[in-house]
Amino acid sequence: MDPDYFRSYEMCWGTLGTIRPFSNFHPDRDVKEIWTALEKKDTRTLVRILTNRSSAQRQVIAQTFEESTQKDLSAGVKKAVAGDLEGLLLDLLMPPLQYEAHRLQQAMAGLGTDEETLLEMLCTRSGKQLQETSEVFQQMYKKDLEKELKGETSGDFAKLVVALLNKDSVASSVQRDVEALCASLNGKKADPGPWIDILTSRDMNHLDKVLMHVELERGQMAEQIVEKSFSGDLELGLSILVQCIQAPYVYLAKRLATMKAPVVQGILVSHCEEDLLCIRAAFLKLTGTSLYTALQSKFKGDYLQALLAICRSED
Question: What fold characterizes domain 174-246?
Answer without folding.
Answer: Annexin V; domain 1 (1.10.220)
